[in-house]
Write a structure and sequence with these properties.
The chain has two domains: 63-163, 2-Layer Sandwich (Copper Amine Oxidase, Chain A, domain 1); 171-370, Aminopeptidase. Strand 5 (107-113) and strand 6 form a beta hairpin. It has 371 residues and is of the alpha+beta class. Helix content is 25%, strand content 22%.
């Protein structure tokens, strides 16, 4: 069992004209809106749940069967409702189990056999694990009445898409848009040798296009050269080619800090849930964007892509995360994922990213994750 470590929350590529961010910095106590796109909706405040507290995962030791968690009724209609539910309710619904308790130092942790490995949940931390890959929950699990509970939104939007993936992977046309981040005057971030994110992202996309085409995908790139492209243009492009899936490719930076490294993968935050990363933007949990219609598929595709990238490259696993401020995701009318393929602010990551062999590995891993 791997030891979970806290992911870096300050990560994100920088940009001048185009970035994966909302097009403008939102005002305080307001909800960001992108002009010339479908409206977002807002839930009443009383329907927004309270977010649990974070902590750091602890090292597991041999497990024992949890015997004090009686089965809970199977949720009706595929929804777990609101509030907190016993972990056993999710297990029953997903057809998994049995639930095992792990002695994890000072923490209380549990694991559940999945169809391809193990899921691990730890009380008091949003950091979880699914089949060896780090996954961020929307809410930290809690002990209620001596029984482990997860939030109903995590059961429905985070865990069930990974346990029951058949429907969410149905892409009738197998048409994908790869979106190399930045371009033109918007260079994105850069490494210590002044090499630009926009160039690395485009090279990654062109290499991935070859792998995906050979695997039978119809592949379109939002840009094929060093040109600028606005957020609405990128969304409209995906609409125009009737894409089944949208993947935005980026590289990260935490300059002037240089310690952060690894790969992290984002999808849009479901309504009612706090984002993993807000980066100074208002994170209105009531907001409903067009891409929220694809919450389940977003989670499933982000996980598959992320796990393949981390396993193939052996990079630091910074986890599958949620963000609401990324304008390139919010207005997509299809499953959409944004991948940060490494930190140009970190010397080791930057050396890898500068290697054509490593970018080829990233491209192959992306294609393999989609299969």
């Amino acid at each position: 069992m791997l030891v979970l470590t806290a992911g870096v929350l300050l990560a994100g590529c920088a940009g001048k004209t185009y970035s994966p961010l909302a097009p403008t910095m939102p005002a305080k106590n307001s909800v960001t809106h992108q002009p010339s796109t479908p409206e977002m909706f807002v839930l009443p405040q009383e329907l927004v749940p309270v977010v649990g507290l974070d902590d750091v995962g602890a090292r597991p030791v041999p497990a024992r069967l949890l015997t004090n968690a009686p089965p809970s009724p199977r949720p009706r209609g595929g929804s777990f409702g609101r509030g907190w539910i016993p972990v056993q309710a999710w297990i029953n619904h997903a057809g998994l189990g049995p639930l095992e308790r792990i002695a994890a130092g000072g923490a209380t942790a549990f694991r559940v056999p999945t169809r391809n490995g193990w899921a691990r949940l730890t009380v008091g931390t949003r950091l979880a694990q699914w089949n060896g890959a780090v996954l961020w929950l929307g809410f930290a699990p809690q002990m209620i009445g001596g029984e482990p509970h997860i939030h109903a939104l995590d059961a429905e939007k985070t865990l069930m898409p990974l346990a029951e993936t058949g429907a969410v992977f149905s892409l009738p046309r197998r048409t994908i848009v790869l979106d190399p981040g930045h371009g033109g005057a918007d260079a994105g971030t850069r490494d210590a040798q002044n090499r630009f994110e926009k160039d690395f992202a485009l090279d990654w996309a062109l290499r991935a296009e070859r792998w995906l085409t050979n695997a039978g995908w119809r592949v379109f790139l939002t840009r094929r050269s060093d040109v600028e492209m606005s957020l609405p243009e990128r969304t409209a492009f995906a609409d125009r080619v009737q894409a089944d899936l949208f993947i935005s490719l980026h590289f990260n930076s935490t300059f002037p800090q240089t310690q952060a490294s690894g790969i992290e993968t984002f999808c849009l935050t479901p309504t009612g849930m706090a984002s993993t990363l807000a980066r100074g933007f208002v994170d209105d949990e009531r907001a409903v964007f067009p891409n929220n219609s694809f919450d389940a598929a977003n989670t499933a595709w982000a996980y598959r892509i992320h796990r393949s990238l981390v396993a193939t490259t052996q990079a630091q696993d910074d986890g599958v995360k949620r963000a609401r401020f990324m304008g390139v995701l919010r207005y997509q009318n299809r499953p959409a994922v944004l991948v940060e393929g490494g930190f140009l602010s970190n010397a080791s990551d930057a050396a890898n990213i500068n290697s054509s062999e490593y970018r080829e590995t990233l491209a192959r891993a992306l294609a393999e994750g989609l299969e």
